[in-house]
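Structure in, sequence out. Go:
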């Protein structure tokens, strides 16, 4: 937070805004009561005067952000139930939010108002990292340090698993995997990112089909493949974290291109109209068109979002390691 310098602040302007170096600027304040006046934060003058777009504004007590033409109210914290060290989250067909956390019960299920409606997974997961929920409500969980992907129903019943538990393999599935996504045709893609630098493809029945990748900065190579998503047309998008890009591949692993304008991308989510949302460590959310054009950027949380997902109404949900969830409630 940037506090007003007493030497530069000269009281309210005619418009009721604090003065900073003789001029008035909008402020953000999260303090109410008698001490509010001494805890305001000016939106930096150089940002307003540079002509750069600043997609955050305050309306009443609500922060608003924009991603291109989309406008959202930021609800933070959204969760009403206490959470631990959160890794990622995903939503099922009924828009219940499944929080995958590293402390406490691994899966915490929240209702539409952020209230607790269930939990499961104790004793089954060693090191929670990535999560994906399919259209038929299968819950895929990446157990990073157990080197395994586990598939459950929404009640916590184990249905299947990929990889041999506690058996890391260099260059093969798995060696500290990070995330998982399921393609429209049922194929399963896993980014294997902390020990390996690969993407592995499995058939819908769990048979390993092929892998691609390797350590490096070139096309089809990875630093830390940290997040993954498969688009409606079957393209595989991989967040190549320390290489500051999202790489795009065909389902067979052929390199198709890459997207920049990112700083350590963390997670990827694609909505029904084809817009791709990427969280990074700036921290911000970057929206891409299906062709890879940047259509919007915003900062909605104080620290970077390790996970992102959306619902059918166009709302976005973000999670931070701090145990807080943020809802971007769509306005338009």
């Amino acid at each position: 937070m940037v506090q007003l310098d007493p030497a530069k602040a000269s009281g309210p302007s005619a418009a009721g805004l604090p003065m900073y170096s003789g001029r008035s600027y909008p402020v953000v304040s999260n303090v109410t009561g008698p001490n509010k006046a001494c805890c305001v934060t000016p939106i930096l003058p150089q940002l307003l005067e540079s002509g750069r777009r600043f997609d955050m504004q305050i309306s009443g007590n609500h922060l608003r952000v924009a991603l291109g033409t989309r406008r959202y109210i930021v609800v933070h914290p959204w969760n009403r139930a206490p959470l631990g060290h959160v890794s990622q989250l995903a939503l099922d067909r009924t828009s219940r939010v499944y929080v995958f956390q590293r402390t406490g019960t691994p899966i915490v299920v929240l209702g539409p108002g952020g209230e607790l409606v269930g939990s499961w997974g104790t004793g089954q997961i060693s090191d929670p990292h990535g999560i994906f929920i399919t259209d038929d409500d299968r819950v895929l969980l990446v157990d990073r340090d157990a080197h395994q992907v586990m598939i459950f129903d929404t009640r916590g019943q184990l249905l299947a698993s990929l990889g041999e538990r506690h058996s890391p393999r260099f260059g093969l599935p798995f060696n500290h995997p990070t995330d998982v996504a399921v393609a429209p045709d049922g194929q399963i893609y896993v980014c294997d990112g902390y020990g390996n630098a690969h993407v592995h493809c499995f058939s819908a029945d769990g048979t390993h089909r092929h892998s691609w990748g390797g350590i490096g900065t070139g096309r089809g190579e990875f630093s830390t493949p940290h997040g993954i998503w498969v688009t409606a047309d079957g393209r595989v998008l991989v967040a190549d974290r320390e290489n500051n890009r999202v790489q795009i591949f065909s389902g067979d692993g052929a390199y198709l291109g890459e997207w920049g304008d990112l700083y350590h991308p963390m997670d990827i989510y694609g909505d029904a109209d084809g817009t791709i949302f990427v969280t990074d460590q700036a921290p911000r959310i970057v929206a891409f068109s299906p062709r890879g054009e940047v259509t919007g950027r915003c900062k909605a949380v104080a620290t970077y979002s390790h996970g992102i997902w959306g619902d059918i109404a166009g709302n976005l949900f973000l999670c931070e390691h701090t145990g807080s969830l943020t809802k971007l409630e769509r306005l338009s």
